[in-house]
Amino acid sequence: MNVKRITAIAGITAALGLGLAACSSSATGFHDMSTLETSVTQQANQGAANSGISGRVSQDVCVSTGANTATCAIQSDDGSGTSIHVVIAADGNSWASS
Fold it and tell me: What is the chain's Cα-based Rg?
């Protein structure tokens, strides 16, 4: 069971590291933590599905750590989790994990 959890988190983390995520801009874009959380969850779930991983993100909480940075704690439905550092474009239109 631990191997399954490690594989799921590794897949989700890898999916998030594949580059920029972009969508239409709102008033504050990805500087709005709820908008960022939604995007991180969608990107992780899509990346996991594309990799054949059955786990899904069940919880994602992002906290701003600076003008253009955040830390997001993600947890999958099996209870495993990880944190990622996110860099947000100055205009708020895209983000990347680092």
Answer: 13
